[in-house]
Amino acid sequence: MSVIVFAENSEGLFKKSSLEAVFYAHELGKLVQQKCIAISIGQVNEEQLKLLATYGADQVFTFDQAETSTFNSELYSELLANTAQNCNAKQVVFANTYSGKLIAPRVAGILNAAMASNVISLPTLENGFVVKRTVFSGKAIANVELKSDIKVISIAPNTFTITAVNKGAEIEKMQSTVSLEIAKTKSLELSKQAGKIALTEAELVVSAGRGMKGPEHWGMVEQLADLLGAATACSKPVSDMHWRPHSEHVGQTGITIKPNLYIAIGISGAIQHLAGVSSSKVIVAINKDPEAPFFKAADYGIVGDAFEVLPQLIEAAKSIQA
Ligand SMILES: Cc1cc2nc3c(=O)[nH]c(=O)nc-3n(C[C@H](O)[C@H](O)[C@H](O)COP(=O)(O)OP(=O)(O)OC[C@H]3O[C@@H](n4cnc5c(N)ncnc54)[C@H](O)[C@@H]3O)c2cc1C
Hints:
Layout: E1 2-7, E2 9-10, E3 13-14, H1 16-32, E4 35-41, H2 46-54, E5 59-63, H3 73-86, E6 89-95, H4 98-111, E7 114-119, E8 129-135, E9 140-146, E10 151-155, E11 170-174, E12 204-208, H5 218-228, E13 231-234, H6 236-240, E14 261-265, H7 271-277, E15 282-287, H8 294-297, E16 300-303, H9 306-321
The chain binds flavin-adenine dinucleotide (FAD).
Flavin-adenine dinucleotide binds at residues 209-211, 235-238, 251-254, 266-268, 270, 272-273, 276, 286-289, 292, 305-307.
């Protein structure tokens, strides 16, 4: 029996969320006394694959064939489910990322497994296999019992601190058990925004709202983000008005994020906005209205005009960098 974990890569590099999933699977393996097998799909070099062992995999399986070179949720789900069956896996772990959200439910379906997403704890085993997961956009925590023989878990990114366990796992090149014919969809083209930090992966986020008055003022927001090594985000009206792309819209109807630091500039702090950001570890709100609701959710607040506060923050960031 084993715990298997999908280690997703982005252009050959494992994401932080993947290493968190591997470390979680390692800890879970210790708990249920089963080995942890990390599965990598696509072209990844040996040095990167070794990272999976460093963060807790007992074995690393790598699938690097032509048919698996491009992400396809149907193909990847089938391959992972087949591998889980071949390894007699009782737990299958994912990071609750864009890809994880697409694949994990499919794998659970194929394996007839119970599934919990957005998991924030290792299971307790005293009264069944019970995990904690966040619900209602992070406003509540549910204890969920997974009652099937095989369990699928997708963990909330940025929740578990990873520690190197320095294992020397064997890396095994595997032969894909699926063919492209099973896929009902095909990606024709992928255009990525070059040089941008992915919002869902970012540890620091600088976000701005309607208080910035217009898209022509976003240079300051981007400059601060660049200096801090942060991703940029925005409120819904800002993306609705096409001041910023929809991919930056956070909140109830946008992306849910959980960075270590969320800086909100000229955003009122409406409940729908907070739904996507309130799990951030530290929140800083900058607003000229001392009654702005964001101050109630923030750890630090600056009451001031963004057009005066932002240049000062940029100068401070520059001097720290220097
Ligand atoms: C079903 C539904 C779903 C929604 N989903 C989302 C969602 O996912 N995400 C989201 O963001 N919203 C969402 N909304 C919209 C949400 O209710 C708010 O309307 C929105 O978040 C407000 O955006 P804002 O704070 O940028 O703008 P505003 O509400 O206009 O607030 C602007 C803020 O900037 C401050 N300000 C103005 N000038 C300055 C200045 N010079 N310096 C500093 N501060 C300044 C003001 O004091 C104010 O607090 C949703 C609404 C509904 C009904």
